[in-house]
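Q: Hi! First time doing this. I have a protein sequence and I read that you can turn it into a structure. Is that right? Here it is:
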Amino acid sequence: MKRRDLLATAAGGLGWLVNQALAKIQENAPLREKEKAIDQLLRELEALRGRFSNVPRTDGQFLNMLVKISRSRRVLEVGTSNGYSAIWICMALEETDGHLTTIEIDPERVKLAKENLKRAGLDHRVTFLEGDAHKVVPTLEGPFDFVFLDADKGREHDYFGYLYPKKLLPGALILVHNAIRMGRAMQRYLDMINAHPEFDTLMVSTTLDDGFAVSYWRRKK
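A: Yes, that's right. Below is the predicted 3D structure, encoded as structure tokens:
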């Protein structure tokens, strides 16, 4: 404390900045400890990846970063599975102060996902909806600024129809997983979104094996 006070006295405004930085470090320290605990849970879930068809770790990190970069606050996920990708998304929503709505048709997976998000201390950031997403999505009020589709491959075109335009915010991002390895099954959607006059679309891979179709709804000038 003496050193901190000395800096504040000697350097004036610089000392104030040092105080602020130190306070911020102290404020963020519990979050870093929390992230360590979450990482341990993520490692456990990664050992079950094949069983639950979760995204690879780097794809989870990509989702996390993209939510933060885009400052998204209203996120929709179709295909919860055991909650692995939801954890990555909700970690980002802690920073943007947002909320995730995630849909899963399998009751057992919904139960597991709820348990895992509670273990991660992130259950306050998510609403779990159980049921057929083709019936659930049309009932959602929205609008969403970030959509992650990772279920029911080949039906992405239908989900787009449920969401666009009224349930999306201008500037919204739509991410479709497995768009490289399962591109043929998604051909109808990929052809549509690539030709859409209001969307910019890019294929992104973090694994050099599979990846996302990332589409951005351009804001009107």
